[in-house]
Fold:
Amino acid sequence: MNRNSKNLFLCFFLVFSSAWGAEEDIFRHPLSPLTMNTFNETCANLAKRTIIKGNFVQEKYLNRLDRSLMSSGNFIIATEQGMVWETLQPFPSTMILSKHFIMQSRPDGRKSVLSAQGNETFTQMSDVISMVFSGQSKGLLENFEVYFFGSASNWNMGLLPRDSIFASFVMKITMSGDSAIRSIRLFERNGDVITYTLSNLSYPARLTAHEEAFFSIP
Structure:
């Protein structure tokens, strides 16, 4: 993966990442035969939500500076199309992950685009991202060491990446939720921690024409 490709994937993950305070404990609970049924039920519940829309608040802790930065905005997760993260505060920007490209637009209007065409690494990483957010249990078990506790209506999950490319910048992931993901926390290898909290979730049957346009090839 070249530097620009890696940076775009990293930017996407920086735009989406608390495990209800359980990140210190979750990795004491490896997935086991006792929790496998509940894990599968949780994943099945997540997979039912083909479209999720809502608001997010991001807190990014910068280890080098020992300070946190806050941002907020709206998001769309659509199983068939991809994901959109639209930051409104403190500066407007948009990150789009589709099956064909990743695009980041900046406040000054500049755009960075990574195409999937002929890019096997893109396809692999895109699949991993989709597994995390759509609750694909088989894919999660193949690509992560999975840790889990709780019930299907109040669960916590920890993921340790098996893929070397993914693991080169994300050390571990913790998530929590109920019938949907409510929060995600990413721990980077440089000590930075990114926490995303999701709220005001809705589950429309289809996207609007404006929302569909996000996923058109730029």
Observations:
- Residues 61 and 157 are 21 Å apart (CA to CA).
- The helical segments are 3-14, 33-47, 120-134, 137-143, 164-167, 209-213.
